[in-house]
UniProtKB/TrEMBL annotation:
Organism: Archangium gephyra
Domain of life: Bacteria
Full protein name: Catechol 2,3-dioxygenase-like lactoylglutathione lyase family enzyme
Signal peptide range: none
Pfam families xref list: Glyoxalase
InterPro entries: Glyas_Bleomycin-R_OHBP_Dase, Glyas_Fos-R_dOase_dom, VOC_core
SUPFAM superfamilies assigned: Glyoxalase/Bleomycin resistance protein/Dihydroxybiphenyl dioxygenase
Database matches in PANTHER family: GLYOXALASE/BLEOMYCIN RESISTANCE PROTEIN/DIOXYGENASE, GLYOXALASE_BLEOMYCIN RESISTANCE PROTEIN_DIOXYGENASE
Chain ranges of the VOC domain: 4-132
């Protein structure tokens, strides 16, 4: 039986740019950055500080795939499914993201279940940052 999700892949155009964005602007921690053989692609993962058992895999399709497979995966950059992230202080996170130059599509809004905002990574993929009501 499936027990849990451990990794979600985000397609990126540039390994170093993506790693710098997720660690520098979003505050994720680098968990892994390893070459998969000489001249091969890199296995790069980052994790939210509060959830070290979950990793985002930053995968560059141009280095991992060939031909049509690379083209199909590359077309998904900036169009991937929205990833939902948890916040314990959405106002501070909003200011931090804004100050870091992160594109905010939808600022903090009040909802029946809590508050959220929507932002984009450097390639246009969307993320929903949510803070649930206490209790």
């Amino acid at each position: 039986m499936i027990q849990r999700v451990t990794h979600v892949t985000v397609y990126v155009k540039n390994d170093d740019e993506a790693l710098a964005f997720f660690t520098g602007k979003l505050g994720f921690k680098k968990k892994m950055d390893s070459a998969m053989g000489p001249g091969g692609p890199r296995w790069i993962t980052v994790t939210p500080v509060g959830q070290p058992d979950f990793e985002l895999t930053l995968l560059n399709p141009a280095t991992w795939f060939k031909g049509e497979e690379a083209a199909i995966a590359s077309e998904q950059i900036g169009r991937q499914a929205m990833i939902i992230l948890d916040s314990d202080d959405i106002d501070t996170d909003h200011r931090t993201l804004k100050d870091a130059g992160v594109t905010i599509d939808l600022g903090v809004r009040e909802l029946p279940w809590g508050r959220d905002l929507i932002f984009r990574d450097l390639y246009g993929n969307r993320y929903n940052l949510v803070q649930s009501k206490q209790g």
